[in-house]
Design brief:
There is one protein chain. 58% of the residues lie in helices and 0% in strands. With 146 residues, the protein is mainly alpha-helical.
Length: 146
């Protein structure tokens, strides 16, 4: 297995309720194992960094934990809680989740994603979570199926 397209949506949260954290775990884990598709950064500047910043987790510490421990998702959430003294600030999580759900790609990015996915831009899909899903699925399909 190599060049795996991460298909966990940014709109998915694990038991801690943090959107995008499962996807970040998957991408970082695949990246650490050398199995992440080349179109994806293991930890990028967008949603990935938003989650780390929103949780107050240092990127280097996160990368090291993933690389050294190869944690399951549940182990990652336990580590996050440990870094935060046993609990998360629910207001910070709510603010982070709202920022993820409310992020809108610029018009050019939206058009590129929809075109690559083979969907007309009828103005009904504007949020980055759904556009990113379409992008992932199109890349997956072209790589693995097409």
């Amino acid at each position: 297995m190599s060049n795996i397209v991460p298909t966990i949506s940014s709109g998915v949260a694990g038991p801690l309720g943090v959107l995008h954290l499962p996807r970040l775990w998957m991408k970082a884990s695949l990246g650490a194992a050398g199995k992440l598709h080349s179109d994806y950064p293991a930890i990028g500047a967008g949603y990935d960094q938003m989650v780390l910043d929103g949780l107050g987790i240092d990127k280097g510490d996160f990368e090291s934990f993933i690389s050294d421990s190869k944690p399951s998702y549940i182990a990652l959430e336990a580590w996050v809680l440990q870094q935060k003294g046993g609990s998360l600030d629910q207001d910070a999580v709510d603010k982070l989740n709202a920022a993820i759900e409310g992020y809108i790609h610029d018009d050019e990015t939206r058009k590129e994603i929809l075109e690559a996915a083979g969907r007309d831009d009828d103005g009904t899909i504007k949020d980055a979570v759904n556009l990113n899903n379409l992008d992932d699925w199109a890349i997956f399909h072209s790589q693995e199926i097409g």
